[in-house]
């Protein structure tokens, strides 16, 4: 299990608050997320209509349904299965750090969706930097350079080393 990072949790809450455009209640991180209501509102703000029904009140089962609906919505949005936390990680507070990592992955994924123009979370995604060389450029470079793959290492060798066990002459 990964150790919780209060700084990351603070960043996640700030991001959620910025996406929703509202100040979050002053509660512990895991308590704010536990019932899934905030998460459902978050994904609905990112992709309107992702979660059709949000249980605003009810027992633990209804709250678990919220979390599961959020998970289904982010999976549909494109988040890989391995980055999505298990329901019990949040509802039973078994692995809150995994929940944080999942939300970071979601915040990062929003950068790949041009239809979303809100705040993002985490490092900026790398953009493709395709290089297109003409056939003559490739041929010219192959003809003028000898790669290390060919076995040339600038003249270094073990010639003159002698055999195993020989003394070194000074």
TrEMBL record:
Residues 6-110 form the Calponin-homology (CH) domain. Keywords: Actin-binding, Calmodulin-binding, Repeat. SUPFAM superfamilies: Calponin-homology domain, CH-domain (SSF47576). InterPro entries: Calponin-like, Calponin/LIMCH1, Calponin_repeat, CH_dom, CH_dom_sf, SM22_calponin. One of its GO terms (molecular function) is calmodulin binding. GO terms for cellular component: actin cytoskeleton. One of its GO terms (biological process) is actin filament organization. Thin filament-associated protein that is implicated in the regulation and modulation of smooth muscle contraction. It is capable of binding to actin, calmodulin and tropomyosin. The interaction of calponin with actin inhibits the actomyosin Mg-ATPase activity. This is Calponin-homology (CH) domain-containing protein.
